# Entry
Amino acid sequence: MFCIEITGIPPGGPARDEIKEKWIGLVLPLYASRFRMPEPRFLPEAGCRVYPVPILTALEILNLQHPEAARWWFENFEHVYSGANFLFSEEIVKVVDELPSLRTEQADDQAINMGQFLQVAEDKEDCQGAVFLIRAHLGHKDWEELQSLPFSKAAAIFLADLAQTEVGRYLDGCSMEESFSDMRKAAKKFFEELYDFTWLHGIQIEEGLIKRPVSWVDAMVDDGYLEEKDGGLVPTKKVSEEARNLEKARNAQNN
# Structure
């Protein structure tokens, strides 16, 4: 998959250079399409082109390699859990075709690895669709390497990012209601299995960091406009209540 390798100290930002220099050498995920070389986007306020990487994902990878530097960010940077991105200038990165820096030099050969979770997920028929999309995105080489990586908090967040991106990309182009519903359910089950696996193996993580929305439907459910019933989705009372309130407001304006 396409990633960026940090080759220089990122300019600007709140951290001191001795903190920022710890980014050098790390490989961070881009989640771009595997069929097209990712292009940086122009950031007018900075006057340069940048590559976005989710802040939390980047910091968890940094924490694997340089925990002291990561601790500074967790303690001093207010946007860690905002869902926003770090923006790395193209001048201090290079695009590479490899997996992120999820392996450490101190990795225990006997530790739980990603392959053990992926096997659990593949064995669950109701989440195989999500696994298939991840596998298709990575390709054979990266899929095989992914399975050998240690299972960690950083790895779990990376996998949740990847599933959310690939399932979301699929759903955006899906025009068949049954296929849309089946893949959305597969993603939901995948996230549940991933969350349970992290806790089963002693990794404490907030539920919302793993269980992700993958479509506009999830936003409607979260906001209380849709609810799941009898295997499908139906409008809630909130929809009719807001429709009545809107009609009352219109009538009041007309009078």
About this structure: The radius of gyration is 21 Å. The CA atoms of residues 50 and 89 lie 4 Å apart.
